[in-house]
């Protein structure tokens, strides 16, 4: 029979009575970072599991694209938000705790030094209009930049969770990219930008994991 791989965790047992002895600002920062790491790890695993090769079947490829880019956009936005959160802690002096301010500043400086190419910019303008916001005005701008050879079919199924309407993806996501990249007609150059966006996710995920680990060592353990 098929073997079952057992997932073994290294557990560090903590209880709320112990954690609540931490200064409130330290506990808040730990909670934000832990929340972000858990979400990002789920999204990263999901991206790997749904990144299938294209089949040539329009309906399947469109469904796969919607799945893949939804996870990619959400993953990217989560990373953008946690970097912004740390930046605001020290830039806006959201705490009076000197050690926490130093930590937030150092983490932000390490983020700024990452070689992110144009990936950071893509993460920002995708986050603004195509990740966590539904913008009517953006849609009106994007329709001027839609690729006419895209998929605009409706795909419906008796099970509602399998309904897909790619016009949304074509206008709100691809149209947004086309609008931003109107002066970049080369498909090679555009593919390079998409790769930089993916590289942003990988590099910033590594930065987040290191940041969380450092915080846990210095402030908790």
Kindly describe this structure.
The chain is an all-alpha fold. It contains eight helices and no strands. Helix 2 runs antiparallel to helix 8 (187-220), helix 3 crosses helix 4 (98-112) and helix 3 (58-91) crosses helix 5. The longest helix has 34 residues, at 58-91. The radius of gyration is 21 Å and the shape is globular. The termini are far apart.
In short:
With 221 residues, the chain is an all-alpha fold. It has eight helices and no strands. Helix 2 packs antiparallel against helix 3 (58-91) and helix 5 packs across helix 8.
Would you spell out the secondary-structure blueprint of this structure?
Blueprint: H1 16-19, H2 24-50, H3 58-91, H4 98-112, H5 119-131, H6 136-142, H7 167-180, H8 187-220
């Amino acid at each position: 029979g098929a073997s079952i791989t057992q997932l073994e965790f290294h557990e560090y047992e903590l209880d709320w009575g112990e954690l609540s002895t931490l200064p409130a600002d330290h506990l808040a920062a730990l909670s934000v970072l832990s929340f972000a790491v858990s979400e990002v790890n789920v999204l990263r695993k999901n991206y790997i599991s749904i990144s299938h090769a294209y089949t040539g079947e329009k309906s399947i490829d469109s469904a796969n694209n919607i799945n893949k880019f939804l996870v990619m956009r959400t993953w990217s936005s989560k990373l953008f938000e946690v970097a912004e959160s740390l930046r605001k802690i020290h830039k806006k002096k959201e705490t009076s705790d000197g050690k926490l301010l130093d930590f937030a500043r150092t983490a932000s400086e390490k983020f700024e030094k990452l070689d992110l190419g144009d990936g950071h910019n893509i993460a920002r303008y995708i986050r603004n209009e195509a990740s966590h916001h539904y913008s009517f005005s953006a849609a009106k701008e994007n329709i001027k930049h839609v690729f006419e050879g895209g998929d605009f079919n409706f795909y419906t199924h008796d099970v509602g969770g399998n309904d897909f309407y790619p016009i949304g993806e074509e206008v709100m996501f691809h149209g947004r990219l086309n609008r931003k990249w109107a002066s970049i007609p080369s498909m090679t150059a555009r593919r390079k930008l998409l790769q930089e966006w993916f590289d942003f996710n990988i590099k910033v995920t590594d930065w987040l994991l290191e940041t969380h680990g450092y915080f846990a060592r210095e402030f908790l353990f």
